Amino acid sequence: MQTIKYNIEDGVALIGIDVPGRSLNILTPQLQQELDQLFTRLGGDDAVKGAVLYSAKARGFIAGADLMALVEAFDRGTSKVEAREQSAYLQNLTRRIETLGKPVATAIGGLALGGGLELALGTHYRVLSENPDAQLGLPEVSVGLLPGGGGTQRLPRLIGVAQALPLLLEGKPVGPQRALELGLVDELAAPDQLLARAKAWVLGNPDACQPWDRKGWKPRDLGNLAFPHGPLTARLLQAHVASRGNYPAPLAILSCVGEGMVVDIDTGLRIERNYFAQLLTGPVARNLIRTQFINKAAADKLVRRPQGFASRAFSRIGVLGAGQMGAGIARVAAQAGIDVTLLDASLEQAQAAHARLAADLERAVGRGQLPATQAEAVLGRICPTADYADLGAVELVIEAVFEDLAVKAEVTARAVAAMPAQALFASNTSTLPISLLAESFPRPADFIGLHFFSPVERMPLVEIIRGRSTSDATLAAAMDFVGQLRKTPILVNDSPGFFTSRVFGSFVDEGFLMLEDGIAPALIEQGARQAGMPVGPLAVADEVSLELQLKVNRQAIELGLAPRFQRGAAIGLVKTMVNQLKRPGRRAGGGFYEYPEAGVKRLWAGLAQHWPQASQQPALEDVRLRLLTIQALESARCVEEGVITDAADADLGSTLGIGFPTWTGGVLSYIDTLGLAAFVEQCDGLAERWGERFRPSDWLRRKAEAGERFHPALASAVR
Ligand code: NAI
């Protein structure tokens, strides 16, 4: 099927793009091929004075590249040579258009992203719809790539290096007004005038030529390139610091601009395609695309939802416990249009939580994040109470009281007596087994775990925990609820700590054990950040509080959980911090860090007295490796034990929930990228040096020996 159609009007070829089977155009290989053939023909046709590119669809221009084509390229194990050819194809097409010897304009009716914008940049003139939906951008960096169709060369040549760099490095699109100010487009027009304006320009400019193809042309802020504080140098430093060597795309983009701007455009394009090939054949782009785009989109579409149950929309829920989590859950539910009964032990406590939410929302209004009327509506939907009778009409109750089995059992029993007989019940517990909590509920099939993350309004993930007796109908309804809140669900089976708390625990405990090993605290924290974790294990332990670690440990012992689930690896250290040194964490005034009233937090100097630092410190890389490996290994155990049944859940849970670095693609992609055999060897090496907890199980060894992996080929996972 054709992807383009064209007709000649007044000697101008009007080329409408209409990629079949899609509501928005994307830049498929077929579209590129057809455009290539058409422009070759038009170039030799004397009756044609010029051309206008536009979208023949109702919306947008071209919304970017075909992610599936990239996925297939990854699966095939595309070589650098093939990757260069792929980039060269679009580069040659755009080069052919701009050197056609005839004027070519683009009428951009809406989204022009990635390859779509690169195509438009290869034409001589751009008219953009003044409709605010119209967005222009080069988001390739967010998938670990660079614009490989001439974008890194044309954009800085067109609008200057300083203005081009943020667009290339941050990947954020701009709207019509900003696009005009930047010089990304030449003119704004009403949507119904676009074609006419573009055509008029073509007819009035028979000698169109790109500025960089004129004799003597020089980039306008080239001087800055060499200047030490010029935009490129500053960005280079920033990119080095921010990526910590884990994300190659920003540096590759900077290299393309820096190296490409001091040579002619054709050489610049060759430079660009070499860097593009490096990125496309490296693991980071593949891992980012798989987890953050393909698998996240699938999870958002509720791919794990059991089939055969009518989709549900909730209109009224109850939340037990108006603390940090309960209030946050109430807020996101109310923002999704759901009425919430927010219950705490006393009316005063519930009202205080409501007042805190009001203050939070007022701040959000002040920052322009939401309109005042919306904030008011959200607050209006949340009804604070201490009276269980107010749960009489809810469809779902979410429990978020203290992490204490007895307290949870008591509030559950009281809710049961008041809530409708068919309403569902969910617990937001982070550590207590769901099947155990379900014993306090008369209909365990209707009981499920909905584990939110703090702060609820910002964290995108919800870990759904299926208890032993949870029914498919309950699971389907819980998925619908999470979808209604616009959060990303993952599905795991019941086990102490489920998936995320368990892996997170392994990270924090490893930090504690390092301290006991005599590793300098600053080195521990730096190793985590170098790996790409947002904060180090000591800082994060301070945030969640060391007292909580003690409580989790105590409760695990009381529940009779197996020793490996007791979080006892470094419990001696935690006890010393809390009981002896009285440093239980940030909220209590201090923990591993000091928190001066004025100024930034700093590691507590007293740590060295209690955990003397070894005279021989390990390399930063060793610390980094320990922290990444322990989490990946714990995740592999979760697969072995059936807690995780789909690798995508582990990858999404670790990156969206607990800050495992996105460049890895997530815990299991990290292992797959190394290869199971290499990972097992890495674990054995760490076990020799640091302890048996790194020893891989026989199951993992067998899997490695059989040459297996956690993820299937990407394309088959998508289809
Ligand atoms: P919190 O201490 O801030 O809030 C607990 C609330 O429950 C308080 O407002 C308290 O007054 C209320 N409460 C206690 N006993 C009650 C009773 N008998 N009747 C009615 N209300 C009662 O605790 P937070 O952090 O909100 O945690 C709540 C639950 O969420 C816990 O199970 C915790 O493990 C879990 N969780 C916590 C996360 C966090 O980062 N804080 C993350 C994910 C889950």
Describe this structure in words.
With 719 residues, the protein is of the alpha/beta class. It folds into three domains: 4-281, 2-enoyl-CoA Hydratase, Chain A, domain 1; 316-493, NAD(P)-binding Rossmann-like Domain (Rossmann fold, 3-Layer(aba) Sandwich), CATH 3.40.50.720; 500-620, Orthogonal Bundle (N-(1-d-carboxylethyl)-l-norvaline Dehydrogenase, domain 2). It has 31 helices and 18 strands. The strands form four sheets. It has an eight-stranded mixed beta sheet, sandwiched between helices. Strands 1-2-3-4-6-8 form a six-stranded mixed beta sheet, with helices on both faces. A hairpin with a 7-residue loop joins strand 17 (593-594) and strand 18 (602-603). Helix 2 (67-76) packs across helix 13 (283-300), helix 20 (500-516) crosses helix 22 (537-544) and helix 20 (500-516) runs antiparallel to helix 26 (620-640). It is globular and about 85 Å long. The model has no long low-confidence stretch (mean pLDDT 94). 1,4-dihydronicotinamide adenine dinucleotide binds next to helix 14, helix 17 and strand 14.
Question: What does the largest sheet look like?
Answer: 8 strands, mixed
Query: What is the count of DSSP helices, taking H or I runs of 4+ residues?
Result: 31
Name the hetero compounds present. Answer: 1,4-dihydronicotinamide adenine dinucleotide
Question: How many β-strands, per DSSP?
Answer: 18
What count of domains describes the coordinates? Answer: 3
User: Which class best fits the helix and strand makeup?
Assistant: alpha/beta
SSE diagram, text form:
Blueprint: E1 4-9, E2 12-17, H1 29-43, E3 50-55, H2 67-76, H3 80-98, E4 104-108, E5 112-113, H4 115-121, E6 125-129, E7 136-137, H5 151-159, H6 161-170, H7 176-182, E8 187-189, H8 194-204, H9 222-226, H10 231-243, H11 248-260, H12 265-280, H13 283-300, E9 316-320, H14 324-335, E10 339-343, H15 347-366, H16 372-381, E11 382-385, E12 396-399, H17 405-418, E13 424-427, H18 434-437, E14 447-452, E15 461-466, H19 472-484, E16 488-493, H20 500-516, H21 521-531, H22 537-544, H23 546-558, H24 571-580, E17 593-594, E18 602-603, H25 607-610, H26 620-640, H27 647-657, H28 667-674, H29 676-690, H30 698-705, H31 714-718
Parallel strand pairs: 2-3, 3-4, 4-6, 5-7, 6-8, 9-10, 9-12, 10-11, 12-13, 13-14, 15-16
Antiparallel strand pairs: 1-2, 14-15, 17-18
Helix pairs in contact: 1-3, 2-13, 3-12, 5-6, 6-11, 10-11, 11-12, 13-27, 15-16, 20-22, 20-26, 21-26, 23-24, 26-28, 26-29, 28-29
1,4-dihydronicotinamide adenine dinucleotide binds at residues 320-326, 344-345, 349, 400-403, 407, 410-411, 428-430, 451-454.
